[in-house]
């Protein structure tokens, strides 16, 4: 009983301190508003606004028809380009796709001689190259079929394919990115705030006063984690309601309550990780450098930016050890797929286990810093 | 000498709304010695900072060495004529550098030629007896040695005005004596030297012919020390200060200490051969003694001699390495929280929460000590009354004057009625009158309530008031007895004399007295030749120092290099936008040869990975929801029949839209496979179809024929890594000096802002260049990314990019005030534009609006173009010069902004 009261009291004290730290509040505000809205509003998924040039050596009706078939928003209006400038234009990165329609293309097509049509792709434009080439291919195919048998394209195909995207019918990239930005900012704040706060107390020698009080390391840590978690969960909630649902108009299908509870669990794991890192570093500059190779992979490889499935197996295993991987997967499941505890329990369990592990290690190391 | 060294008229100084100095006016003749006394927070450091030109003068007129300090030209000429040693033990020294390196760094800043520097350093080291330790890092020196080194650094350029801010606070009396002997020697050699010293020791101020008294921002008295002291019968500055404070209530009342009731009471604290080691450093060495119940026991010694540590060990707050201790008859146990409830502790850094009010602090601690609220309420009321805190009970405690905070700390410490009270330097920085008040409380606790009081101090007059004291030095108790007995034992006129004798005996002949080597002045022409404007020499001195610190901090260096390699490996392997082995399942409601033939194409593809088939729609939905499968293919009943009849059956592909990028890619794959299947389907259909494709579509993936992610991602990841690590390296550069105090050296020396910025940047730039080289090598040989373009262009772009990112770190460092803000700022500001908008994942040409703008306003995207262009596209500077130019622009803009943000003076 006393223990709980201690944690509560200390936690309230931490909140009072936070209220007086204006720089921190400013960062919190930025992290949960601008830093969510901006990337989500400007989000791009798949082929968007891709730059195309066409080398038209045929100048026929069909070549013009093909050129015009490439339309916004997927493609910028195609630019005409002389043949000898293909290499140079691609080298300079002016165009992602350069299409070459050879001379007498139309004649050959009508004569059934299957003329060649070349698409040059700048394959370094990672997210666009492969998908865009497929797009262009299908668009041309449709155009050509239409040209050969006007008005009957659809009927000519032996079978049709319909795509139905569940949980996000129009595949709006911003929906996901908004949530991922929240996840990322929570990661940054949780690890850096708790880590640097601990180091600051150590560098300034104010950890001393904790020794005076009849408190255990566990109580001190739980109070710190608890108060930080409370603030961040609150910010997350407001941000989801105001920025994500309100300003961005993302319909969140799932239960916000469950997601916020999961956020609290994630904060437990990530703040413990922050404390652990702080006990590894001996000074704040060391901590700053140590935090980078921990945080950036958590931002990039947890499934929020790139798919986890396409990473090599060993790395997938490594990333299973990161709380962020489970949190990203939980966020997508709960918020978009409206999954309940019955569905997401494996991730919940993993997140809890990782959190407990980090917490125990951090606690053991924190105890040692207190007494030395 | 008739010339004036200082002339102040109506100086006012405020921090925000807090007034630090109010209407200060005085004069000080050149060549005199002047003491500046007053309690902590009286404005001593602010006044000294203004005189040294370290702080910006707000209002009033201040003439320093025949010129106004407010004038920039004059101030610049003063750097080499003033020496300033800020408060704190070695705060402006560089702990990782040796004594020699510290001194020669300052010498270079002041433009001393090497030979001159060597000669003078040798003389100073001889005079201070530091020669034997010349290669020891400053961080490993004792407090006294640090202060002597500080003095060497201050004197290296032979100043006309020497300003010392509490140079001997926390230093043992022997070192203190040696320190003043040294200053005297310097003055003998250079009689025109004016000395201005802030001190907490009145005895020290008494030896100077001039005295300034500051209290709460006001100059309450100024003039010859003798005349000032003469206002009270005791002829002491101590009492004179109390007199000038004009606080009638406080003055008079000499402190009376009633004798202890009985001398042989039970033992409250006992230590036997107590030892505590941190690694190979012995902080406490075989300490033994016993403290009786109700006794006031004092610990006397310098900073870092082990007083605080011994106190903690003795009371069970820290486990001992060896020996035993007992508290109130029970052996001490560090993990025993019950012990803490019987002990009240007041640490050097007060156990207070500045954001809480006085009352809230008391209430919080009452809760933490588990006092029932029925008991705690009257207790708090009683303490507020007894400790005279009524008038401030609801004020924020952090904003209160030190003396009041000290009283509150004591109130907190005794709140739970402890039997033992441990006070670690409770009165340092408190003015004499408030100190007496504080002692009245202590005496009351000891004599009336029988509380055992164990305190440490470095004030001799306080030690005199203790029942018994022990003299401590370097972890050992040298002597332990009543003050009178100690004085007798070491035949000292005063307790201080006794302590000095005791230290001399203990140290033996190790530390020889100050040598009589003459200190030859620096030849005047040497200093005159010093350049006023930008100096490469100073820049390199700074770069050299910063570099040495970085090299000696192996962990930081290792994190910087290995962190980059680690990220390159996992991102090189890990960031892949191809979707492979996509988990999918089929819901085949037809189960015909045709449907199986159609699905075969999916099963054979490396992009798809089939899971157990789906049996009903509900299950399909559930499995998608659980993310067990990312794609479901639904074949309608009668698919084969309809196909044959030419009725165009429709296959449905259900995608998990939760992660839109993956869904989009999957959709593409599905459509491609379906398209490829059409021919097969046609052959299964009765309806005729053109047997031959209309065109031969040839797709050529340039620069990355196999669309291997790493070829495009690898060079891009370099841009990502080199955005974070160099910025983080430099981001703490300035702000750390601000937080730890060595920034004063920038304010007080001829270093210009540009020299400071660039000099600090150089070592980090070099480390980052090594990083760049390593990353390029890894891309080339570990990941086998072909390099087709111009190495020169990559090198140019790389250097410019690193200049840009390191200068961005400097900008953050110049802008923020705490290390926390600097780290958080670097991370948050860098991550969004680098990860989302640099073109690493989505090409920059596809971005629009604010996203595109953010990408353009951040250097990462430009270097990404250069890295990818030189690696995969065979580009050279002829194509990449606009990007290089942009990076140069970033560097210039960031540095320019930093110059504007960085102030050569404190506010």
Commentary on this structure:
The complex is a heterodimer of chains A (372) and B (907). Chain A is 66% helix and 7% strand. Chain A is an alpha/beta fold and 372 residues long. Chain A folds into two domains: 2-43 and 172-370, no CATH class; 52-156, 3-Layer(aba) Sandwich (abc type-2 transporter like fold). In chain A, strands 2-1-3-4 form a four-stranded mixed beta sheet, covered by helices on one side. The longest helix of chain A is centred in the middle third of the chain and has 31 residues, at 173-203. Chain A is elongated. The two termini of chain A are 29 Å apart. The mean pLDDT of chain A is 83. In chain B, helix 12 packs across helix 13, helix 20 (536-552) packs across helix 28 and helix 29 packs antiparallel against helix 32. Helices cover 48% and strands 17% of the residues of chain B. With 907 residues, chain B is α/β, with parallel strands linked by helices. Chain B folds into five domains: 1-81 and 159-171 and 192-244, 3-Layer(aba) Sandwich (Rossmann fold), CATH 3.40.50; 91-158, no CATH class; 267-507, P-loop containing nucleotide triphosphate hydrolases (Rossmann fold, 3-Layer(aba) Sandwich); 536-570 and 707-901, no CATH class; 582-684, abc type-2 transporter like domain (abc type-2 transporter like fold), CATH 3.40.1710. In chain B, helix 15 (432-449) links the parallel strand 16 and strand 17 (452-457). Chain B has a six-stranded mixed beta sheet, sandwiched between helices. Chain B has a six-stranded mixed beta sheet with strand order 15-16-17-12-18-19, with helices on both faces. In chain B, strands 11-10-13-14 form a four-stranded antiparallel beta sheet. Chain B contains 33 helices and 24 strands. Chain B is elongated. The chains are: A alpha/beta (372), B alpha/beta (907). At the A-B interface, helix 1, helix 2, helix 3, strand 4 and helix 7 of A face helix 11, helix 12, helix 21, helix 23 and strand 23 of B.
């Amino acid at each position: 009983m006393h223990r709980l009261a201690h944690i509560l009291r200390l936690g309230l004290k931490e909140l009072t301190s936070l209220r007086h730290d204006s720089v921190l509040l400013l960062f919190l505000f930025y992290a949960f508003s601008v830093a969510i809205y901006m990337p989500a509003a400007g989000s791009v998924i798949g082929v968007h606004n891709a730059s195309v040039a066409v080398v038209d050596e045929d100048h026929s009706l069909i070549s013009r028809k093909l050129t015009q078939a490439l339309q916004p928003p997927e493609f910028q209006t195609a630019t005409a380009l002389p043949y000898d400038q293909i290499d140079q234009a691609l080298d300079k990165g002016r165009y992602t796709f350069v299409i070459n329609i050879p001379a007498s293309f139309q004649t050959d097509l009508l004569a059934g001689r299957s003329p060649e049509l070349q698409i040059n792709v700048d394959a370094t434009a990672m997210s666009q190259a492969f998908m865009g080439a497929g797009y262009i291919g299908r668009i041309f195919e449709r155009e050509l079929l239409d040209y050969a048998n006007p008005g009957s394209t659809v009927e000519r195909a032996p079978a049709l394919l319909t795509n139905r995207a569940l949980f996000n019918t129009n595949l709006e990239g911003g929906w996901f990115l908004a949530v991922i930005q929240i996840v990322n900012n929570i990661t940054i704040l949780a690890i850096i705030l708790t880590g640097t706060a601990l180091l600051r107390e150590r560098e300034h020698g104010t950890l001393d006063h904790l020794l005076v009080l009849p408190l255990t390391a566990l109580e001190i840590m739980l109070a710190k984690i608890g108060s930080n978690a409370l603030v961040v969960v609150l910010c997350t909630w407001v941000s989801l309601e105001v920025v994500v649902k309100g300003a961005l108009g993302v319909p969140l299908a799932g239960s916000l309550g469950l997601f916020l509870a999961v956020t609290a669990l994630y904060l437990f794991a990530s703040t413990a990780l922050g404390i652990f890192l702080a006990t590894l570093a001996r000074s704040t500059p060391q901590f700053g450098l140590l935090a980078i190779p921990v945080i950036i992979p958590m931002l990039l490889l947890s499934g929020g930016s790139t798919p986890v499935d396409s990473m090599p197996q060993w790395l997938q295993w490594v990333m299973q050890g990161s709380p962020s991987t489970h949190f990203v997967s939980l966020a997508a499941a709960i918020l978009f797929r409206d999954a309940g505890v019955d569905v997401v329990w494996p991730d919940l369990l993993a997140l809890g286990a990782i959190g407990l592990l980090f917490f125990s290690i951090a606690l053991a190391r924190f105890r040692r810093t207190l007494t030395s | 000498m008739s010339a004036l060294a200082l002339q102040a008229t109506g100086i006012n100084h405020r921090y925000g709304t807090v007034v630090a100095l109010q209407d200060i006016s005085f004069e000080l003749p050149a060549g005199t010695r002047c003491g500046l006394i007053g309690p902590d927070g009286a404005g001593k450091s602010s006044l000294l900072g203004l005189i040294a030109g370290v702080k910006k003068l707000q209002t009033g007129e201040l003439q320093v060495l025949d010129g106004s300090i407010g004038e920039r030209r004059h101030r610049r000429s003063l750097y080499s004529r003033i020496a300033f040693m800020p408060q704190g033990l070695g705060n402006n020294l560089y702990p990782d550098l040796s004594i020699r390196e510290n001194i020669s760094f300052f010498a270079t800043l002041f433009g001393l030629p090497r030979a001159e520097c060597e000669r003078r350093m040798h003389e100073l080291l001889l005079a201070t007896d530091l020669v034997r330790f010349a290669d020891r890092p400053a961080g490993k020196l004792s407090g006294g040695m640090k202060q002597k080194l500080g003095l060497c650094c201050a004197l290296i350029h032979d100043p006309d005005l020497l300003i010392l801010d509490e140079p001997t606070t926390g230093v043992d009396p022997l070192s203190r004596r040696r320190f003043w002997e040294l200053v005297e020697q310097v003055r003998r050699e250079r009689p025109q030297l004016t000395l201005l010293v802030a001190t907490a020791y009145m005895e020290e101020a008494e030896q100077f012919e001039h005295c300034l008294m500051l209290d709460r921002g006001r100059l309450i008295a100024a003039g010859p020390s003798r005349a000032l002291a003469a206002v009270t019968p005791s002829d002491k500055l101590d009492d004179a200060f109390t007199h000038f404070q004009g606080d009638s209530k406080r003055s008079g009342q000499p402190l009376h200490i009633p004798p202890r009731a009985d001398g042989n009471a039970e033992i409250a604290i006992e230590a036997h051969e107590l030892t505590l080691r941190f690694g190979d450093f012995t902080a406490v060495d075989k300490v033994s003694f016993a403290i009786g119940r109700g006794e006031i026991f004092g610990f006397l010694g310098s900073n870092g001699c082990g007083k605080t540590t011994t106190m903690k060990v003795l009371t069970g707050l820290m486990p001992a390495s060896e020996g035993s201790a007992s508290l109130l008859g029970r052996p001490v146990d560090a993990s025993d929280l019950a012990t803490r409830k019987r002990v009240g502790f007041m640490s050097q850094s007060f156990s207070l929460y500045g954001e809480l009010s006085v009352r809230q602090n008391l209430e919080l601690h009452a809760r933490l000590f588990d006092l029932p609220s029925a008991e705690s309420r009257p207790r708090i009321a009683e303490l507020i009354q007894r400790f005279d805190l009524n008038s401030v009970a609801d004020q924020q405690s952090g904003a209160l004057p030190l003396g009041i905070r000290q009283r509150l700390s004591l109130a907190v410490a005794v709140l739970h009625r402890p039997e033992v009270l441990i006070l670690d330097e409770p009165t340092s920085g408190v003015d004499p009158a408030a100190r007496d008040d504080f002692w009245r409380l202590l005496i009351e606790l000891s004599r009336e309530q029988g509380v055992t009081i164990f305190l440490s101090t470095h004030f001799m007059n306080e030690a005199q008031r203790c029942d018994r004291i022990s003299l401590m030095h370097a972890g050992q108790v040298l002597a332990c007895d009543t003050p009178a007995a100690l004085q007798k034992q070491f035949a000292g006129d005063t307790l201080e004399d006794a302590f000095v004798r005791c230290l001399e005996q203990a140290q033996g002949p190790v530390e020889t007295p100050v040598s009589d080597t003459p200190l030859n002045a620096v030849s005047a022409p040497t200093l005159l030749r010093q350049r006023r404007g930008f100096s490469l020499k100073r820049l390199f001195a700074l770069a050299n120092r910063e570099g040495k610190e970085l090299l000696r901090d192996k962990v930081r260096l290792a994190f910087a290099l290995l962190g980059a390699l680690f990220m390159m490996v996992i991102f090189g392997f890990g960031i892949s936008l191809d979707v492979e082995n996509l988990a999918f399942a089929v819901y085949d409601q037809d189960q015909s040869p045709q449907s199986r033939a159609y699905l075969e194409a999916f099963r054979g593809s490396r992009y798809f990975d089939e899971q157990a088939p789906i049996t009903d729609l509900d299950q399909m939905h559930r499995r998608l929801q659980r993310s067990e499968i990312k794609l479901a293919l639904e074949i309608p009943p009668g698919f084969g029949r309809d196909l044959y009849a030419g009725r165009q059956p429709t296959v449905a592909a259900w995608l998990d839209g939760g992660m839109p990028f993956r869904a989009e890619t999957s959709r593409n794959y599905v459509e491609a496979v379906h398209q490829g299947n059409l021919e097969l389907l046609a052959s299964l259909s009765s309806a005729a179809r053109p047997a031959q494709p209309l065109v031969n579509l040839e797709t050529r993936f340039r620069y990355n024929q196999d669309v291997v992610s790493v070829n495009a991602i690898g060079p891009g990841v370099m841009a990502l890594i080199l955005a974070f690590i160099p910025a983080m390296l430099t981001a703490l550069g300035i702000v750390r000096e601000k937080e730890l105090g060595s920034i004063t050296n920038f304010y007080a020396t001829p270093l210009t802002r540009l020299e400071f910025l660039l000099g600090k940047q150089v070592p980090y730039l070099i480390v980052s260049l090594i990083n760049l080289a390593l990353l390029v090598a890894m891309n080339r040989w570990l990941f086998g990314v072909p390099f087709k373009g111009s190495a020169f262009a990559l090198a140019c772009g790389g250097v410019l990019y690193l200049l840009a990112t390191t200068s961005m770190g400097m900008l953050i460092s110049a802008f923020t005030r705490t290390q926390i803000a600097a780290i958080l700022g670097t991370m948050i500001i860098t991550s969004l534009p680098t990860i989302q908008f640099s073109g690493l994942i989505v090409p920059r040409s596809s971005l629009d609006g604010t996203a595109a703008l953010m990408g353009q306003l951040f250097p990462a995207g430009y270097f990404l173009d250069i890295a990818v262009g030189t690696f995969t596209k065979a580009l050279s500077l002829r194509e990449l010069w606009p990007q290089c130019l942009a990076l140069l622009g970033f560097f210039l803009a960031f540095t320019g902004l930093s110059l504007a943000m960085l102030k050569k003076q404190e506010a």
